[in-house]
Amino acid sequence: MAHKPTYEELEQRIEELEKESVERKRVEEALEASTRRYRAIVEDSPDMIYVLDSEGHFSFVGGAVKSLLGFTLEKLIGKHFTSIIWPEDIKKAERHFGERRTGERSTRGFEVRLITRGGGKKDVDIKCLSVELYSFGVYDKPVSAKDKRFLGTYGVARDITDRKRAEKALRTAAQQWRTTFDAISEATCLLDMEGKILRCNKAMTNLLGKSFEEIIGGTCWELVHGTSEPVEGCPVGRMCKTGRRETLVLEIDDQYLKVTADPLIDETGNLKGAVHIITNITERKKAEEALEQKVVELNSFINNIPDMAWIKDINSNFIAANKAFGNAVGMEPEYLINHNCEICFGKEAAEKFRQDDKRVMESRKQTVIEESITVEGKKAYLETIKSPIFDESGEVVGTVGVARDITERKKAEEALKADAERLEEMVEERTQDLRDAQEQLVRHEKLTVMGQLAGGLGHELRNPLGAIRNAAYFLSMALEEPEQEIKEALEILDNEVVTSERIINSLLDFARPKPPTRLEVDINDVVQAALSRVPAPENVEVVSQLHEMLPTISGDADQLAQVFGNLILNAFQAMPEGGRLVVKSEAASPEWVTISFTDTGIGMDKETLEKVFEPLFTTKSKGIGLGLALTKLLVEGHGGTIEAQSKEGKGTTFTIRMPPD
Q1: Would you place residue 598 in the very low, low, confident or very high pLDDT band (cuts 50, 70, 90)?
Q2: pLDDT at 483
Q3: DSSP notation for 516-533
Q4: Where residue 332 falls among pLDDT bands split at 50, 70, 90?
Q5: Would you say the pTM of this structure is higher than 0.90?
Q6: CATH of the domain at 614
Q7: What would you measure as the largest C-alpha separation in the chain, in angstroms?
Q8: Residues 244, 263: contact at Cβ < 8 Å?
Q9: Were 482 and a residue from 30, 415, 486, 586 both cysteine, which residue would form a disulfide, CB within 3.0 to 4.6 Å?
Q10: What is the SS3 string spanning 257-279?
Q11: Closest residue by Cα to residue 323 from 341, 305, 296
Q12: What are the helix (H) ranges across 364-483?
């Protein structure tokens, strides 16, 4: 029969239950608070947090699932995990899930690609753990391991898309670096501070005849020189001390190797090793030796050339020069090397020579130039032949020049040229003298013939002209009241007789000029008299500018009046449309009294002006061309001169100069 509890036991039990209820409530509140905290952590997590049941279905999903995949939490609950695995990665995911089911823990995480809502893929890193629980129940002690059963897994999925891209870019960069590193033709390797090779390129393996594995970890002195320590002058050791590039040229087994060590600096600026480069310069060395031999031979050749010779690079700097050039500029040829012409000829000349070199290189053709140089204040003339220099590929790399001193030849040519020019002048002068003599002879012959003709015709024509004048006079007296036409005809007849007599007198005066009857003459009075004898047309203004204090001259007033009258008449005839005549006298100098006649008429061209004083030359429809010739004859008979200045369309000035008494 069961024990019936007492009142005290019931009170004690009630009290225990109340305590258990309070404790349970506290635990529930603590659990709820803990649940809220963990839920907040899960919801705010940048990763996707999930729980799978024992069959692989989602029983819980939280965190960044929506931002990561685009699915809502509700869409995934109850779905199998393979539904969001990229098809190619499903087997991998199932294998890892199986490891959790069997309790194997070979890995705690793996990379897999998930399908996003848009059909794309995301690279994620799955961190998951097996959930192992004992059988349901509350026990004071755990049961044996054989009683445990698999309930599922939980894990975290993190988006590693950016990391995968970075890793891919890093792999690509590493591959490119490796490709570039191997493409370097020189044997190149990276050394640490102890001289051990960290990396090397294919050229290094080819040079040493060893594989990468045999080279990596070894030292350059072991692999290159076969020694247990660095060789004397090792550029790596020197670089470690100086912190800058160091170089060494080695001769090994008939080969020349140029070894270069450059500092390898880390991101903090500290020296961490060296970039070690070995260049096989055997062919270049042999070429340099051959070139040096050729240079020796060339120098021997050009130094025996009496002409100046040199070689310049593309920048017009001297590469070589012979002794003749050095002697010409007063410098040793070796001193000119790597300098331009400025060092010996000055800046201006050097620029000219540089431009000459440039034209030769651009034209790619040989050029012959005559030029002058000044050395120590002495000027010399050179005949220079410049030619372009081509390399094996046909590119212009400089110029070669040969110059010959032609100063003496140039002086002889200049002297010959001066003599030729003087001879030409003498021939021209002699030709002009002959031409003038011929013209004078022709003129003399004309005058002789004219004198003979004038002497014969003068007497023969004056008698009939006198009879004609007398007959005209008789008719005018006989006819008491002649008709107007007859009267005009008689006047014309009388005027023509006067004109004929004037022509005859001009011919006689020119053919047999009379010497002037010299008396003391006031030149202004003669000018005024000439102006009064030749009336001015109505449309011509005459302006007299006669100097009042002129000295008198010794001359024939009638002949001078004839001279001035001819010039005044010519001026009026040159201004058919009217104009202005300025008559001016002055004592221009103690030796001369000057009288000028300036009109504003039609003027003369150069050809007419040159012939204006020639006898029988005229541009008028009437006249025989003796007026100005006679004028000049009369002026020169007084020891004076006459000249004409004219501009076509502007007017003419005749200027007479007479010696004072």
Answers
A1: very high
A2: 74
A3: P--EEE-HHHHHHHHHHH
A4: confident
A5: no
A6: 3.30.565.10
A7: 219
A8: yes
A9: 486
A10: EEEEEEEEECCCCCEEEEEEEEE
A11: 305
A12: 407-478
In 103-199, which ranges are continuous DSSP H helix?
161-183
Give the neighbor-by-neighbor strand order of the sheet with 396-405. 318-321, 308-313, 396-405, 378-390, 367-375
| Amino acid of residue 178 | R
Q: What is the arithmetic mean of pLDDT over 230-247?
A: 87
- Please tell me the distance from the alpha carbon of residue 439 to that of residue 618, in angstroms, as a whole number: 17
Cα gap 326→330, rounded to integer Å = 6
605 found inside a domain: yes
Q: Which residue has the tokens 């729980």?
A: 51
Q: Residue 582 above 90 pLDDT? A: yes
Contact indicator for 206, 186 with CB cutoff of 8 Å? no
The H or E element containing residue 287 is helix 282-302
Where are the strands (E) in 7-79, listed by range? 48-53, 58-63
DSSP strands (E only) in 166-265: 187-191, 197-200, 246-252, 255-265
DSSP state letter for 225: I
CATH at residue 129: 3.30.450.20
Which residues touch 438 (CB under 8 Å, ≥6 apart)?
Answer: none
Which of 229, 250, 280 is the last residue in one of the domains?
Answer: 280
CA dist 83 and 57 (Å) reads 10
Helix H or strand E segment including 390: strand 378-390
3-state SS, residue 552: coil
Range of the domain at 401: 285-405
Q: Select from 165, 161, 172, 175 the least CA-distant residue to 111.
A: 161
3-state secondary structure 608-648: HHHHCCCCCCCCCCCCCCCHHHHHHHHHHHCCCEEEEEEEC
Mark whether 274 and 300 lie in a shared domain.
no
3-state SS assignment for residue 1: coil
How much is the average pLDDT of 49-54?
81
Q: What is the pLDDT of residue 341?
A: 86
Q: Are residues 339 and 305 in the same domain?
A: yes
pLDDT tens per residue across span 450-476: 656 655 655 566 667 667 767 766 666
Q: 108 and 127 in contact (C-beta within 8 Å)? A: yes
- Radius of gyration in angstroms for the set of CA atoms belonging to the chain, rounded to a whole number: 65
Cα 144 from chain centroid?
96
Q: What is the spatial distance between Cα 513 and Cα 505, in angstroms, rounded to a whole number? A: 11
CA distance 511 to 447: 6
Compute how many other C-beta atoms are within 10 angstroms of the C-beta atom of residue 553: 22
Give the integer Cα–Cα distance in Å for 25 and 91: 47
Residue 502 Cα distances to 465, 470, 498, 627, angstroms: 12, 17, 6, 11
The answer to whether 160 touches 46, Cβ cutoff 8 Å, is no
Provide the number of structural domains found in the chain. Answer: 5
d(CA 318, CA 471): 108
Say if CB 584 and CB 596 are below 8 A apart: yes
